[in-house]
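Work Package 3 (structural annotation) set out to generate three-dimensional models for the target panel prioritized at the project kickoff. During this period the team completed the workflow that converts sequence records into discrete structure tokens, so that structures can be stored uniformly alongside our sequence database. As a representative example, we reproduce one entry of 206 residues exactly as it appears in the project archive.
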Amino acid sequence: MKAEERERSRIARDLHDSIMIQFSTVKMNLSTLMNKWEQEIPKEQIRPHVINLDKAMQSLRKAAHHLMPDMILEGGLEDAVSYFCNNLQKDVFFTINLEFIGKIPRFETQIELAIFRIFQELMQNIIKHAQASEVYILISYSDGQLGIEIEDNGVGFGEKESRKDYKGIGLKSIEARLVPLGGNMDIATGSSGTNVCIEFNITPVS
């Protein structure tokens, strides 16, 4: 059983840290080509590949989530986020600025994993939609309150789009994860980027 769990963790890590990021990067690059060299490379020749990559990414993300890579949280939420950002930075074109304020304590494993999944989803949204060059991440803990703030300098949601009707960035999925944790999310967006603030009132494990 221990050997099986180790193998499941290894596969999940490989899926998430290499293949998933590669898919995201390829999709981003193909999308850039469509916008940059429209005359030399017709969009219609590239669009089907982008669509297929997007479908593959969705299936792969589900598979990786089902594998439950608990090993990534062995060191707690702080180590998991640092590990994720360090690996992600190697494959994206935007700069990731990560800062922790206060010592992030250990929480129950399922709570840590749920919060980490929310963080992953937010970062995937930036990769897929923001077109940003800088991303700032601030994670803090004080007096039973955990705060996660993620800000990018991308394109924002657009003037005609709101948080409620912008379905492409997976906000419904994130909000569904927040509900059982008692978390609150606040989003500010505009032409200069998007700022997402999440707060949890949670007690560390003793």
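The radius of gyration is 18 Å.
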